């Protein structure tokens, strides 16, 4: 038998053995009464979507959305498409919901409009809702709070290892329990919505890199081998103007529109979202945007993920009558649809349909006749946050909020989380409009940050300013980072608003299932310069000490190791006298030399005179 035929036969026998073992395992599970596990394995679903939105500034807003659902249960011993590591984290730490976002860059909503889904602040943001330990124990009890704090610490450490991020830096000194913000997005049990069960924290200095993107893609059913995940080119995404990775896990019903359902109808939904704002490299004519997925990502799609129930690409064509309606797309879309929420029209490509492909590989390109008129989709609410003051003793944080709606006011929830090393005083808080509700929790040194939440209305066509003063403190020398002169990060403020109608959501063209009216804005993260000691002083002291010791060691060693001999003291003489003495010494030396030469000559002559007489 040839080696190649033997190898093929060996592989075939192995596959047959694996299939027989799988069938035997299924029969054993069914006979042992564990038929629910088999049903759960077959009940997972997966869909992948991509939304492409041309922006006014000749940029493309790209949002990848991968949604995986599995039946909700107490123990996730076996899963099919749902990532096992995420299920283990949810089970181990008794989580109801988990939301993690890693972001590079600042989303400029003034130029780009509101995103298709709530964007995130620069760095890392994580918040989670925990299940209560015991329904008979009050949520606010010390034991319950300690349990939640321990689970919160374990959760951040687990996420740090799972996504190769420094989320283990999240401590209680950087975490709060929001009172009105960050409400549950999924199903909630009766009476379980208590702010003592939620934890929220941000790390503005967290950098997003390939080490975060790679494990994120590995959690997808098809990884990066096929489907829309093939387009996630790390070099292209990380060189974009804005890039964000998100993981949102929440319980939902079979029908997302229902707010409550029986336990057997509940699902655990994990949504992986990657958002990027990219400027295509080919802008050939003025006010004309040319783009293609191949040029942007340098990858062509061969097919959708074979494990996906749906694999769709949406292209936003704007409102009826918009110039974007005349966008030339290649190939022709599978179908078009209009969103009932805001009347935006979408061109849809179904990658599961073979007729969608214009060849062996799918290449999507677009050519817009002109960009959208500036100001047509101006955001109704804009924010700007900055640090005021000078010196290293006092300062202030100010945030300007502008309502561009000419007819109606906006009700805003405002959240500030300030580090404990800023001495914030409540009596210095200033707001140019009446405060409807407020919550303030002062910081505790090295234990908890300042927590400020406000509810107020912004009048129509007006701007208001929030301001609070603080004192700068001097930290312990071990608490300063290596680059202390760079400054200390202050997390961004969070502004939540519910718009009156979906049409006011700028060019928010969301995929089905997105909430089109609620918006959460994030302001800029800030840098504050604290009084910093001169860390070069130890180096200077070491150098000075070593120099002094070196200079002192030489004489001390000489005095202790050499014998002292007293010599004649030379009298002070004038230079002329010294010269005269030297001349005399030279003459005396010369005379002495002549005398030694003359003595031998006289001796030899005397010997010659005496020799004849003898």
TrEMBL record:
Gene Ontology biological process: attachment of GPI anchor to protein
Keyword presence, Kinase: no
Keyword terms of this UniProt record: Signal
Pfam families hit by this protein: Gpi16
Gene Ontology cellular-component terms listed: GPI-anchor transamidase complex
InterPro entries listed in its UniProt record: PIG-T (IPR007245)
Keyword flag Electron transport: no
Annotated signal sequence range: 1-30
PANTHER family linked: GPI TRANSAMIDASE COMPONENT PIG-T, GPI TRANSAMIDASE COMPONENT PIG-T-RELATED
UniProt-recorded name of the protein: GPI transamidase component PIG-T
């Amino acid at each position: 038998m040839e080696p190649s035929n033997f190898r093929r036969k060996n592989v075939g026998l192995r596959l047959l053995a694996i299939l027989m073992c799988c069938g035997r395992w299924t029969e054993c599970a069914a006979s042992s009464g564990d038929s629910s596990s088999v049903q759960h394995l077959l009940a997972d679903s997966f869909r992948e979507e991509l939304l492409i939105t041309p922006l006014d500034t000749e940029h493309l807003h790209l949002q990848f959305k991968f949604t995986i659902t599995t039946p909700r249960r107490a123990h996730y011993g076996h899963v099919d498409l749902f990532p096992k590591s995420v299920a283990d984290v949810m089970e181990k730490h008794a989580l109801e919901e988990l939301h993690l976002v890693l972001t590079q860059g600042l989303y400029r909503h003034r130029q780009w409009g509101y995103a298709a889904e709530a964007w995130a602040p620069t760095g890392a943001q994580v918040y989670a809702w925990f299940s209560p330990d015991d329904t008979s124990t009050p949520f606010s009890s010390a034991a319950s709070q300690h349990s939640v704090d321990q689970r919160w610490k374990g959760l951040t450490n687990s996420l740090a290892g799972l996504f190769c991020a420094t989320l283990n830096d999240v401590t209680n000194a950087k975490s709060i329990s929001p009172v009105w913000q960050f409400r549950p997005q999924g199903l909630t049990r009766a009476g379980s919505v208590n702010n003592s069960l939620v934890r929220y924290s941000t790390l503005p200095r967290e950098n997003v890199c390939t080490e975060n993107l790679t494990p994120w893609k590995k959690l997808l059913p098809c990884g990066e081998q096929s489907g829309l995940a093939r387009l996630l080119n790390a070099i292209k995404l990380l060189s974009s103007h804005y890039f964000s990775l998100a993981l949102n896990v929440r319980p939902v019903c079979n029908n997302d529109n229902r707010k409550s359902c029986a336990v057997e109808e509940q699902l655990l939904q994990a949504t992986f979202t990657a958002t990027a704002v990219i400027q295509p490299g080919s802008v050939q004519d003025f006010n004309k945007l040319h783009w293609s997925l191949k040029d942007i990502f340098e990858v062509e799609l061969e097919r959708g993920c074979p494990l996906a129930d749906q694999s769709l690409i949406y292209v936003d064509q704007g409102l009826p009558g918009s110039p974007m309606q005349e966008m030339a797309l290649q190939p022709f879309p599978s179908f078009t649809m209009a969103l009932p929420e805001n009347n935006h029209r979408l061109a849809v490509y179904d990658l599961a349909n073979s007729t969608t492909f214009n060849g062996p590989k799918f290449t999507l390109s677009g050519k817009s006749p002109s960009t959208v008129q500036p100001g047509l989709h101006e955001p109704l609410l804009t924010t700007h946050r900055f640090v005021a003051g000078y010196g290293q003793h006092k300062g202030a944080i100010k945030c300007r909020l502008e309502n561009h709606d000419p007819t109606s006011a906006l009700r805003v929830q405002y959240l500030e989380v300030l580090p404990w090393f800023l001495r914030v005083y409540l009596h210095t808080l200033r707001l140019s409009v009446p405060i409807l509700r407020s919550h303030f929790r002062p910081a505790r040194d090295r234990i908890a940050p300042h927590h400020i939440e406000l509810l107020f209305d912004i009048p129509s066509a007006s701007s208001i300013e929030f301001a609070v003063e603080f004192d700068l403190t001097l930290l312990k020398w071990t608490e300063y980072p290596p680059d202390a002169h760079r400054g200390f990060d202050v997390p961004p403020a969070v502004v939540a608003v519910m718009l009156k109608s979906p049409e006011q959501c700028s060019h928010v063209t969301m995929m089905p299932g997105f909430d089109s009216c609620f918006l959460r804005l994030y302001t800029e993260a800030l840098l504050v310069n604290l009084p910093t000691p001169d860390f070069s002083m130890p180096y200077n002291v070491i150098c000075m000490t070593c120099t002094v010791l070196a200079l002192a060691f030489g004489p001390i060693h000489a005095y202790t190791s050499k014998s002292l001999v007293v010599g004649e003291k030379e009298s002070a003489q004038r230079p002329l006298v010294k010269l005269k003495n030297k001349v005399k010494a030279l003459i005396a030396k010369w005379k002495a030399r002549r005398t030694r030469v003359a003595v031998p000559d006289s001796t030899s002559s005397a010997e010659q005179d005496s020799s004849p007489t003898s």
